Amino acid sequence: SANHALRAIGPILSVPPRVEKTDPLHDLAQIHFAGLSATFRAQQERASMRAKMKADEAQIVQLEGKVLGANNRAEDATSKANEALESLGLLQSRLAADVEAAKEQVRNEERTALREELEVSFSERLRKAREEFQKE
């Protein structure tokens, strides 16, 4: 019956259910009004959900932008690090060449010092040999 239907949707409308008998047409009008109210609330709920979804989408776009920015900064940092490593590699090669040149210079200086020492020693022996020869 209409009263039974009103009792079922009464809490939705916040309207106390009717206990006394009323006009069935009036009950139908109230049921129709309850349906319209429920439809209106559902539309408001959908609009609210759409607005929340749009806000969420905007936040997602903003976060994607931040992620892209972070990725770009990371790529820049990686590129700079690779350049630094490449530069270090060049420096290391130059340093190795400098070390080899220094070693060669030290070997040359040692040879020259040894040659001079041998010449002095040879000259000294030659002088002594002349002295010995002149004594005889």
Automatic annotation (TrEMBL):
Coiled coil: 92-119
Superkingdom of this protein's organism: Eukaryota
Keywords: Coiled coil
Protein name, UniProt field: Uncharacterized protein
Highest classification ranks of the organism: Eukaryota, Viridiplantae, Streptophyta, Embryophyta, Tracheophyta
